[in-house]
Amino acid sequence: MNAPLLLLLATLLGLLVLFGRPLGEYLGNVLEREPVASARFLVPVERGLYRAMGIDANDRMDWKRYLGALLAFNLVGLVFLIGLLLLQHRLPLNPQGFPPMGWALAFNTASSFVSNTNWQAYSGEVVLGHLAQSLGLTVQNFLSAATGLTVMAALARGIRRRKATNLGSFWVDLVRLTLYVLVPLSMAFGLFLVSQGVVQTWLPSVKALWLSAPSGAPAEQTIALGPAASQIAIKMLGTNGGGFFGANGAHPFENPTPLSNVVQIIAILLIPAACCFAFGKMVRDRRQGWALFVAMGLLLALATGLAGWAEHRPVPALQQAGIVHTAGSLEGKELRNGLDTSLLWSTATTAASSGSVNAQHDAMSPLAGLSQMVLMQIGEVAFGGVGSGLYGMLIFVFIGVFVSGLMVGRTPEYLGKKVEVFEMKMAALVVLIPSMFILVGTALTVLHPQVSTWVSNPGPHAFSQILYTWTSASANNGSAFAGMNVNTPFLNIGLGVAMLACRFAPIAAVLAIAGSLGSKKRTPPGPGTLPTHGPLFIGVLVSIVLLVGALTFLPALALGPVAEHFAAH
């Protein structure tokens, strides 16, 4: 890793500690209903929402009721968003007069935003009107992020509680997380973005004269506008990633300045990092939160280091042509942002479930693309999505204590709760379901008779495009190797099913684990108890994450980015 990139990464991790730790304490207070400074202003609103929704604020749910409420709520969101996309031509606030989406693309888009994937097989500024962008996509950005945080909270309660079946109330968690955490942060961040030049208007477009008009171009250029800042704020903070404009973070109306570029990278990982500290607070052992943060930071550093080495390494074909490569590979990069911040954004966004981009991943070197794919394929546990990254990493913690316990002949335990057969079966499902969709979906796409018309490159890179597509959808990430055409009925439906299945089936398994652990008594630590907060266990945890990823995906990666790398060198 070169010195500037190393400095950027170290600064990012330091800022995540600086801002993530107090935010994690605040998040823990919100989930535990402890006093917070904003309560005097927001408690009346909270109570009003409970009355309007018919919610009992003192209700308690076991894991099955919690899961049922979560699935029902997200099903309503899915149906509502599909309807909105199919009927947008009949609704107000569509000044561009956009037609309705086709049903397959509408299903794909709705599945994407409900599942926190935010995969987009279209460019938003030329397909969706202002109402669909605001009432449809932006609202789901809030609700899908809050859903991930509720599952994290339920799992933390299951670990902490003794012989109790209740995990709290999904409805109360959803309201409090949205009202006390996501909305205030997004309002503040949205104002910051507007101050940097991100557009926020109900106007559809503006006309501008060309400085140097391309041959045959009209005299004026039409530049799309809209309520972008409000969507981009929660897009980044909620690890959603779907952009108002097709170019996403490379568009000057989404990411206008060097400051906005750096702050948006921090925003991607801020709440996921805070979840580590919130978890430590909720389980009454802050050392556990620090251990998870360090393990996640190590995984991010490894991937960023590999990507940085690959992007700064001279390309033999360019050397043979006499082209100087001192600045690194600038293909597909927005020169306003530069190479190193583009690299750091690319690994941060795939480490989290953000999927936002400020450079074209398809144009990066094969090993940089491999780094991005691996971060998603290991379950996006290097910080990961809001809530989902934390509970995803805890699944690997359970696997780690189980394997470690078997090696020394002792009953595996985590924070005084025995990790037994049921928990391991559920943990295996969390790991295997997305892996199955990635590998099977890639295989079916490769065998499709029209696949050659969907990819923009032959050979290993074409396979990488396909593998990246299914990895991104099944990992609920949403970024893409942009050279592949995914707006086809086969991919719209297939990827939509993958996004929903890989979001909600693991959630069901995680909540089942939470319910099982919550019903168990707590065992006091003894001489043979494995400490799960020290360097040894952090090393074991990182090793298990990488080993599971390698055993599952190394053959597929060898056919794509690895083969392409060796072919180029």
Fold blueprint:
Layout: H1 3-31, H2 39-53, H3 63-86, H4 103-114, H5 130-160, H6 170-196, E1 205-209, E2 220-224, H7 228-237, H8 258-282, H9 286-312, H10 316-320, H11 339-351, H12 366-377, H13 388-408, E3 413-414, E4 417-418, H14 421-447, H15 459-474, H16 489-518, H17 535-568
Antiparallel strand pairs: 1-2, 3-4
Helix pairs in contact: 1-8, 1-9, 1-11, 2-6, 3-4, 3-5, 3-16, 4-16, 5-6, 5-7, 5-16, 6-7, 8-9, 8-11, 9-11, 9-12, 9-17, 11-12, 12-15, 12-17, 13-14, 13-17, 14-15, 14-16, 15-17
Number of self-contained structural domains: 2
Low-confidence stretches: none
Distance between the termini: 19 Å
Global geometry? globular
Oligomer: single chain
Percent strand equals under 5%
SSE arrangement, N to C: HHHHHHEEHHHHHHHEEHHHH
How confident is the prediction overall: mean pLDDT? 93
Total helical elements = 17
Cα radius of gyration in angstroms: 23 Å
Strand order, sheet with most strands: 1-2
Helix content: 55-70%
Q: Which class best fits the helix and strand makeup?
A: mainly alpha
Biggest sheet architecture? 2 strands, antiparallel
Care to count the β-strands? 4
